[in-house]
Amino acid sequence: MIIENQIDYEVVEDPNIALPCVQPVLPDDVYHNRLKRTLQEMSKRNLKYLMIYADREHYGNFEYLTGYGPRFEEALLIVDQSGESYTLLGNECLGMAKQSRITTEGILFHAFSLPNQPIHDNKTLKEILRYIGVDANVRVGMAGWKLLYPDFGTRQDFDVPSFIVDKVKEVTGEGSLENVTDLFIDPQYGLRVINTAHDIAYFEFGAAYASDAVLNMLRHTRTGLTEIEVSQYSTSGSLPTSLFPKVLAGERMDLGMVSPTTNKLKLGDRFQVSMGLIGGQSNRRGFAVYSEADLPEESRDFLDKIAKPYFTVMVNWYENMQIGVKGSEIYQMVEETYPRNVHGWFLNPGHLISTEEWMSSPIYEGSEITMKSGMILQMDIIPFLEKIYAAPNCEDGIAIGDEKLREEIKTLYPEVYGRIMARREFMEKKLNIRLKPEVLPLSNITGLYRPYMLNKDKAFVIRRED
């Protein structure tokens, strides 16, 4: 275990890792295998139909089979145990059914369209369900996006709009519909928890661009710029986000989940930059200063009292991450070395990443879930401190891959593998962070933390005797 007096603050050059030039396209057999595994789970649960809800914010389970998410509207994918499927879409998304990666019949459902759009040949949801074959004699699973069961409700509680759930119940009967969101995202057995080499290559693309966006914004940050002006240095273009990008300065940090404004960055401000794209999120938070001399007297112990303990636990998170370690062991390591009652964190110290920035988490108190090859995880320890200090943050994502999976990535996606190895080399040789072979950094800046964020030269590193 690394301890705080091993942390030095010294000159570290930014990593020089190229961005991907080609975005991977998942091959057809990935989607065929996903559908096959889904049908197997349906059979185990004796489900005749599986209904998967989606909207713009919550489409990961839907996209897992179709390869896209709805824009503007909601959507409902209905899969028959035979493998046939039907996709209910509104006016503006109906054409996307033709692009589905599994064979499906697109059905126009006007209730999913935007308000006051033209209505023609309107069919009710009950009429559509009966056309598909759903009736009172079948068991139906409904997948939303939250794990309501078992902590927040029963199998008969749903996080899907009532205008859908109520009509389905009218057709199937009250007891025939059950919540099966866990089929996809439960951190122990969910279908989406384990990723293939193709998946990891696909997600690495977004993680690389998200981290490069953060790095470039930080490189160009200076006092006098507004939050919006800093955000314009992002290099991610119009790639779809997995969360709202954040550039926040000063007292606006206390607002939390808000977007950039024309608020100007001032010397001594608390400061945060983050970007999340499909596949990964990078987040950096600290003080907008060059050195402790730019801080008020009451905050000048920030480096030793606040930032170094945070960096220490972050390093230990990366160095302890490995195949077979229990989520409770990671949680307990964080709690014992970086106590909640001192540093104010309360969310899970790490979670699973997929199409969503936060899918679910195997890392919590008492978790018996072990880390497995194919998982993609976010290092996500978020302290909350008194306002005289900037709560540090150095958040990035990794994949876990055993020797077989690493060899598959190397063979199928040599450029992706090369970037992953370059990131490992930067972490190990420049920052002295020692990783298990199975830890595969997806962010170009994993582990790089400059707590004085206007000082573009210095960062934390580990000092070792051996």
Comma- or semicolon-separated keywords:
466 residues; alpha+beta; Creatine Amidinohydrolase; Creatine Amidinohydrolase, Chain A, domain 1; 2 domains; 7-stranded antiparallel sheet; 6-stranded mixed sheet; 12 helices; 16% strand; globular; Xaa-Pro aminopeptidase; Creatin/AminoP/Spt16_N; aminopeptidase
Topology:
Blueprint: E1 7-11, H1 28-44, E2 49-54, H2 60-66, E3 75-80, E4 85-89, E5 105-108, H3 125-132, E6 140-143, H4 162-172, E7 177-179, H5 182-185, H6 197-220, H7 227-231, E8 246-249, E9 270-277, E10 280-287, H8 302-320, H9 327-337, H10 340-343, E11 351-352, E12 376-379, E13 393-400, H11 403-412, H12 414-430, E14 439-441, E15 458-462
Parallel strand pairs: 2-6, 4-5, 6-7
Antiparallel strand pairs: 1-15, 2-3, 3-4, 8-9, 9-10, 10-13, 11-12, 12-13, 13-14
Helix pairs in contact: 3-4, 6-11, 8-9, 11-12
Organism: Proteiniclasticum ruminis
InterPro entries: Creatin/AminoP/Spt16_N, Creatinase/aminopeptidase-like
Keywords: Aminopeptidase, Hydrolase, Protease
